[in-house]
Amino acid sequence: MKPIALIFISLLLPAALWAANPQPCHPQKNHGLSGSIQKHPHAPALIRNESTAMHIVGAYSLPTIASVPAVVFVMMTNTAKVEDELLGAQSKIAKAVEIHESKQQGEVLRMLPVKSIKIPAGGKLAFRHGGYHLMLIGLKKNLKKGDQIQVTFEFKKAGKVTLKVPVLKMGPHAGMHGMGH
User: Fold this and answer.
1) Quick one: pLDDT at residue 171?
2) Domain 3-178: assigned CATH number
3) For the whole model, what pTM was predicted?
4) How far is CA 48 from CA 149, 161, 163, in A?
C-alpha cells in the first residue's frame, strides 16, 4: 500500500470508530483550567511527583498507526500557593513534543500549537479530547496498547516532572488528534 493511502486510512479509521460510537467532545471551560477531565476508563488513578507542587492525574496515550503523531491526555493540579506555567514537554520517543489546543474554526476542529499555559495557584489544567493536549510528533516507532512512554513536563516554578504514560486501547475519541493538522 502506498504511504499516502496509509496516512489517509489512519485518519479515516479513527473517525469511523468515533462515528460508530459518538460522544460529544466537551468544550473547554475557562481554557481548560478548571472542570473535570474526560478520564479514559483504564487510565491510572494518580501519578504524583512529591518533590513538586504539580500533581498529575490519569495520564494516558493511545495507539498510533502509520507514524501518525501520538497524543497525551492528563490532568494537572497546581497545589502551590503561586501561579506556575507549563513551558513544554519532551519525550525520547518523538522528534518533537508540542502543546496543542483544539479550536473550532467554522466546521473544522483545528489543533494549534501553544507556547505555554499558565496554571493559577490551586488551579487545574485538563489535557483532554477537544481541548488542550500534548502532541508527540515524528515518533521513532508506532505506539501499541500496553506500551509505556516516558514524558517530561517542564514547569517554570515546579521544574521538570517525568512520568511513564501508558498506551491504552482505542476509545471512541481515539485518533481525533490527527484531524485538522
Assistant:
1) 52
2) 2.60.40.1890
3) 0.68
4) 16, 9, 9
Q: Decide if pLDDT at 174 tops 80.
A: no
The pLDDT value given to residue 145:
94
Q: What is the pLDDT of the chain when averaged over all its residues?
A: 74
pLDDT at 153 over 60: yes
The DSSP code sequence of 2-71 is: -HHHHHHHHHHHHHHHHHHS--PPPPPSGGGTSS-----TTS-S-EE-TTSSEEEEEEEE----TTPPEE
Rounded distance between C-alpha atoms, residue 22 and residue 141, angstroms: 29
Where do the domains of the chain lie?
3-178
Instruction: Tell me how far CA of residue 88 lies from CA of 12, 31, 41, 130, 171, in angstroms.
Output: 29, 17, 26, 19, 26
SS (H, E, C) 129-180: CCCEEEEEEEECCCCCCCCEEEEEEEECCCEEEEEEEEECCCCCCCCHHHCC
